[in-house]
Amino acid sequence: MDSNNIVKEEDDLSFGLQVLGSFSFPMALCSAIDLGIFEIIAKEGDGAKLSSKDIAIKIGTKNKDAPNMLDRLLRMLSCHSVLKCYVHEDTQNIEPPKSFYSLSPKSKCFLIDADGVSLGPLLALAMDKVFYQSWNELNGAILEGGIPFNRIYGMNAFDYSRVEHVAGDMFESVPKGDAILMKWILHDWSDEQCLKLLKNCYKAIPENGKVIVVESILPMVPEETDSAKFGFGSDLFMMTQNPGGKERTQQEFMDLAKSSGFSSIKLICHVGLWVIEFYK
């Protein structure tokens, strides 16, 4: 076996091992968000570097093992560039090396910004045990039919008791306006339900109006990009939670637009998600 094949096999094995441990990253990230670790570091000012002991004190834990447990959590997050890790070594070799942690550019995604916005609550929703348990029924749903969420709870996600319903039914009518914005709405529903909704939107806007949709767009062929990984992951999440829910390709959005009366769509911009405008 030549050296190139050996390197490829090693890379493939490394990938497989990474997949085996991949579940721990979102779990660790959820814990860091719940404990307020990002905010604790941010409050110390730009460029602040805190040890796990510093963070444990600010959290207020009484667990004597907390600094060690936090250090293991923080170094794992540093491997994913969510934090930066700096190791200070004692030149006298009296004290063991000590790690300090600071925010990274990616930390900003999970810090509450000036508008009160963060990806933290969305991650918490995806990792909530109510949704997480649905994955245990994915095989059963494939083999026997049904929606994994429904198989676990005997109802769909929109009827689950923790959901507070607000009066109004977008499948019956939509309030009139020059523009209608829908973020992460269409991916919850089947094509049939989306057509009902989009036809109501069509009726609600004037000739020069538009419907603004914010959704993922799947590539026709799977890619190794971060955007594609998020999109296909979200597609599986929709499949396990909602009846008919799915992410769509650009062509599928065009088909929905044409079938509901719209003349065209336009991809406006992309920052993680796409902003898509539907025109009469």
TrEMBL record:
Record-annotated O-methyltransferase dimerisation domain positions: 18-111
An annotated Gene Ontology molecular function: S-adenosylmethionine-dependent methyltransferase activity
InterPro entries: COMT-like (IPR016461), COMT_C (IPR001077), COMT_dimerisation (IPR012967), SAM-dependent_MTases_sf (IPR029063), WH-like_DNA-bd_sf (IPR036388), WH_DNA-bd_sf (IPR036390)
Superkingdom assignment: Eukaryota
GO terms classed as biological process: methylation
Presence of keyword Methyltransferase: yes
Domain O-methyltransferase C-terminal positions: 161-263
Alphabetically ordered keywords of this record: Methyltransferase, S-adenosyl-L-methionine, Transferase
Record's keyword annotation contains S-adenosyl-L-methionine: yes
Gene3D superfamilies: Vaccinia Virus protein VP39, Winged helix-like DNA-binding domain superfamily/Winged helix DNA-binding domain
Protein known as: Putative caffeate O-methyltransferase
Organism: Lupinus albus (White lupine)
